[in-house]
Amino acid sequence: MDTTIICPRFETAISLLSQRWTGLIIYQLLNGPQRFRHLTEVIGISGRLLSERLKSLEAAGVVTRKVYPETPVRIEYELTEKGFSLKPVMDAIQDWSQEWVEPVNAK
Amino acid sequence: MDTTIICPRFETAISLLSQRWTGLIIYQLLNGPQRFRHLTEVIGISGRLLSERLKSLEAAGVVTRKVYPETPVRIEYELTEKGFSLKPVMDAIQDWSQEWVEPVNAK
DNA sequence: CCCTTTAGTTACTTTATGTAACCAATTATA
DNA sequence: TATAATTGGTTACATAAAGTAACTAAAGGG
Fold first, then answer.
1. B18 closest-nt by C1' vs CA
2. CB–CB of A93 and B7 under 8 A?
3. How far is the CA of B7 from the C1' of D5 (A)?
4. DSSP alpha helices (H): ranges in chain A?
5. How far, CA to CA in Å, does B79 sit from each of A44, A71, A107, B26?
6. May I ask the CATH architecture of the domain B32-100?
7. Chain B residue with minimal CA distance to A89?
8. pLDDT score, position A71
């Protein structure tokens, strides 16, 4: 009998990455710290969900939130070391998409 | 003004991978062709969702369905070349999880 | 004061997921 | 000859997550 068990760490990792938007947020933050509003515009996510995702990414130790008390207030989100170390994952997805995903395609 | 645009191929790729269960299904199928029932047991997914995911993975050209008219009928799902070429992605997630995810953790 | 900007939150609708019972095909068992 | 068992699903319904859009708080600027 095949009693293969999926690695629990892998499962934890993929449950993070397979949440809608989290991959795109991390991918986008690989370009450097960015503001809330900018993220909504570039990614095409609503404030409601971006807020939720950033909180859970912060809780997961992937993202940090930095407040600059300018006017109007500037808040930047950036990847932690843990977050940056997802770059090889994003690169692998990027590579695969270049080879296997046709460019056209609307939906 | 920063008019960065996220690569559409990357977006397509990640919209596939960020569907719940698809990552685990692909990861599991990297071990070779497997039957429907076996997948439900190993992954812990319901028949309803597994069926739906396998159909969309087939439509995306990542998985093929093979029917062996034995008794009871044996149907095996296996990765296509496109599917197997996601191995570097899965490996990268695996590597990251080994380094950054603590093993304990229930939910 | 009123307006603008940023960074969210709230309330509500729509879509996706979870759960469990059910079905058809086929062969073994009482 | 029923009856049960196994596989590969599907259906119907409940719950959770995501989408939409309006709203709020804080802090200047005019």
1. C16
2. no
3. 51
4. 8-17, 22-29, 36-43, 47-59, 81-84, 87-100
5. 32, 53, 24, 7
6. Orthogonal Bundle (1.10)
7. B92
8. 82
Q: Where are the beta strands (DSSP E) in B1-107?
A: 34-35, 63-68, 74-79
Interface list for B 73-92 with A (CB within 8 A): 82, 85-86, 88-89, 91-92
- Cβ–Cβ gap A92/B94 under 8 Å: no
The per-residue pLDDT for range A54-63, each reduced to its tens digit, is 999 999 999 9
**32-61 of chain B touching strand C, CB 7 A cut-off:** 45-49, 52
- pLDDT at position A4, please? 61
In this predicted structure, the answer to whether residue B15 has a pLDDT above a threshold of 60 is yes
Domain boundaries, chain A: 22-99
Whether A65 contacts A75, CB under 8 Å: yes
The matching CATH number, chosen from 3.30.70.260, 3.90.660.10, 1.10.10.10, 3.90.1150.10, for A22-99 is 1.10.10.10
Give the tens place of pLDDT for each residue, B38-50.
999 999 999 999 9
